[in-house]
Every structure is written in C-alpha cells, then in structure tokens.
Write a structure and sequence with these properties.
The complex is a heterodimer of chains A (about 180) and B (about 210).
Chain A: H1 6-19, H2 23-45, H3 49-64, H4 76-93, H5 122-126, H6 131-140, H7 147-154, H8 158-178
Helix pairs in contact in A: 1-2, 2-3, 2-4, 3-4, 3-8, 6-7, 6-8, 7-8
Chain B: H1 3-12, H2 21-43, H3 50-54, H4 58-79, H5 90-109, H6 112-120, H7 124-148, H8 154-176, H9 182-207
Helix pairs in contact in B: 2-7, 2-8, 4-5, 4-8, 5-9, 6-9, 7-8, 7-9, 8-9
The chains are: A mainly alpha (about 180), B mainly alpha (about 210).
C-alpha cells in the first residue's frame, strides 16, 4: 500500500478520536480516507468517473461499517479490504467478474464523462429515497448545509434531521448491496 | 454528487453511535446455546449411562474435542465480520489435531476387525440429522450477527458460521450420543458438519452481501 507508517498512524488516531465522539476528527479522517480509497480504486479501475462512484460507495460503506474496525489493529488494511470488496461488488453488478485489470475490458467501459448519471451514482440513489429523507440528505450533501441549517430550513428538530440522514444513508447503501 | 458533498453528510452522521459487533455476537451466542439447550432438553437429554461414561476416556475426550472446536470456530467467525482482520484458526486447528491424534490412537488400540463396528456405531443416521437440528439456531443467529458486520468474503463467512453451528450442535449431541469412538466421530460428526458448512456457505452468498 502507498500509505504506511505516518499516514497509517494518523488515520488510526483520527478514527479512534472519531469513535470517541470527536466530529472534527471524523471529518478529517474521511477526507484523508478518501485519498487512500481513491488510490486503491484507481489501481483497479483506472481514473474515470466510474472510479469516483466506487470511491463514494466505499466511503459510505466505511462510514456505516466503522464499528468493524478493531481499534488495536492497523486501519489501512481494513480500509483497503472494504474498498476492494466494493470494487468487486461494482464489477459484479455490471455483470463482470471482479479482480480484473482495466486493460482486459478497457474498450467496454463507458467513456468517462463529467456527468456521473447512471444507476450506481449515489446522487441517483437519492431519488429512490422517501421524500423526507431525500430532502434531508440532499440538504446535507449537494446543498452543503449543516444539520442545524437543515433543521431550520425544513422546520425539523436537529434530532429528526440526524435520524433522517442516518436512515437515508443506510437506505442508499442497502440499495447498492441488493442490486 | 461530489465526493466532498458526501463526506460532508457522512461527517454530520458521525455522532450516531454504531452498533457493537461484540454485543451482536454475544447475543448470537446466547441464542445459539439457548436454542440448542431447549431442543436438547425436549428431544434428547444426556445418555442414560452418562455418570459411568464420564469415568471413561473416550466420552470426555469426545465432548472436549467438539467443545474446543466450537470455541475455536467462534473466534474465527467473529473475525470474518471484520474486513482485513487476520483469522485466529489456532484453537480450531488444535481441536482437529486432537481428533486426528485420537483416531490414530484408536486405530492402534483396537484390533483391525473392531474398526468397522466402531465406525458404523449404533445410530449414525440420528447423528447426521440431530447435529444440524441442534445447530440450526446457531446458524440463524450467527448469520444475523454477521450481517451487523462487514464480511468481505460472504461465502467463506457463511461457511465458517455453518461449521461453527454444526460444532455447537455437535457439543450437545455428543452428550446424548452413545458412540464414543473417535472413528465414529471423525466419520459422522464430520459429515454432519460438512453439511452445515455447505448450507452456511450458500446462505452466506445469498444473505451476507452489504
């Protein structure tokens, strides 16, 4: 792996702090984890917008499954294992076998485009959510609002926003797991 | 959606306390033992001569071997819910080694003409049916626990909990079963556990995607 030593220690430290309730540490962890995940994904699928979809699926999985990391073990093997699983899962859903090199089917891949609007895109998956969840998840993602701003804008309590966000994210992940 | 946007939302969701994997497996273990204990109490019970059997070598050895194997597989199964974790197969392998040694000793101790009767035993069909029956609760409970985790090898994880569930069933059945020869155990118990492993692998493939 490209990340050893220092970055491993930093990622593990941030995640430990995050699991103990430090939200700022968690945001920083996710940013750095995204860099790591992107490297693992690109090694498998190349750098197309396709790859970025898988990066997002992997980040969502890392988030929802963060309790499966053993805090006394290195975190990068855990991140890499989840990412590889999501890469293979993405291939499987497209009717291809996983663990293949990009060269083997390069011609069959969709041309990279600025618009990532096919069925795997998380943005598309938003549309499948119940309206209440969709408004909350959209506010916190594409609109970039905070929980407080979202609560104020939608006339909800902050707690209701948090619940809708969590359920919405879990529903998006479940959709990828099924299809 | 941009990746930064997603990260923004994930960070906002970071305060939600994730489920505890240790708790999920502890509950699964309790359900597995409670189910097997109930089925055992209703339909089986210890063999009539259990007090005398404890004084022998073969009966305690048989129970100890399957118990160690069940504990060893429980350790392995828990790790399969955690991506990238190493698999602690030592204890399970030790139990297999213990069985292999018992088989070797049995072959040495018994005259050749006694091998087949010991292997065939008194009721191998009951053994084949009872171990899956006693272990079914463990299989269902441990598959549910695995779903709380993140098994990156669903078929393998399912196979492991199938094997574990067979071992749980075997521990209870061993107390009931009058056949103590390692030749019987290595044949029929293994066959029952292989059956559970296959069922588990299939269930894992179907039910453990995430």
């Amino acid at each position: 792996m490209a990340f050893t030593g220092e970055e491993e220690t930093r990622l593990a430290g941030l995640m430990r702090a995050a699991l103990a309730g430090d939200e700022a540490a968690y945001a920083e962890f996710l940013k750095r984890a995204a860099v790591f995940v992107r490297i693992v994904v690109r090694r498998k699928v190349g750098s197309s917008s396709d790859g970025e979809d898988v990066v997002q699926e992997a980040l969502l999985a890392i988030h929802l499954k963060r309790h499966t990391w053993r805090t006394d073990e290195p975190i990068t093997p855990w991140l890499a294992a989840i990412t590889r699983y999501k890469v293979i899962d993405a291939f499987r859903r497209r009717g291809r076998r996983g663990e293949v090199d990009i060269e083997d089917f390069e011609e069959n891949l969709e041309a990279p485009s600025a618009d990532t609007g096919h069925e795997r895109d998380i943005g598309r998956a938003l549309d499948s959510l119940a309206p209440g969840q969709r408004r909350v998840v959209a506010a916190l993602t594409v609109e970039g609002r905070s929980v407080r701003e979202t609560a104020a804008a939608l006339g909800l309590t902050e707690n209701a926003v948090r619940v809708a966000l969590h359920r919405g994210l879990a529903a998006i992940a479940a959709r990828f797991g099924r299809t | 959606m941009k990746t930064e946007d997603l990260i923004h939302a994930l960070a906002a969701d970071g305060a939600v306390r994730p489920v505890s994997l240790a708790r999920a497996f502890a509950i699964a273990g309790a359900v597995a033992v409670a189910y097997a204990g109930l089925v055992f109490a209703i339909g089986y019970g210890p063999r009539p001569d259990v007090a005398a059997a404890i004084e022998t070598v073969r009966f305690p050895l048989k129970v100890l071997t399957v118990l160690l194997f069940a504990l060893g597989m429980a350790r392995v199964a828990g790790r399969l819910a955690q991506p990238g974790a190493s698999l602690p197969v030592g204890l399970a392998a030790g139990a297999v080694g213990l069985l292999a040694a018992s088989v070797a000793l049995e072959l040495f101790l018994l005259p050749r003409e006694a091998w087949m009767p010991a292997l065939v035993g008194t009721n191998s069909l009951l053994c084949l049916m009872s171990i899956p029956l006693l272990g079914a609760g463990a299989l269902a409970a441990s598959l549910l626990a695995l779903r709380q985790g993140a098994p990156t090898r669903p078929a393998l994880a399912g196979a492991a909990v199938g094997l574990l569930s067979g071992a749980v069933g075997a521990v209870f059945y061993a107390v009931h079963c009058p056949d103590d020869s390692p030749l019987f155990v290595v044949t029929w118990y293994s066959l029952a556990l292989a059956l559970m492993t296959g069922v588990g692998a299939l269930a894992g493939r179907l039910a453990l995607r995430w």
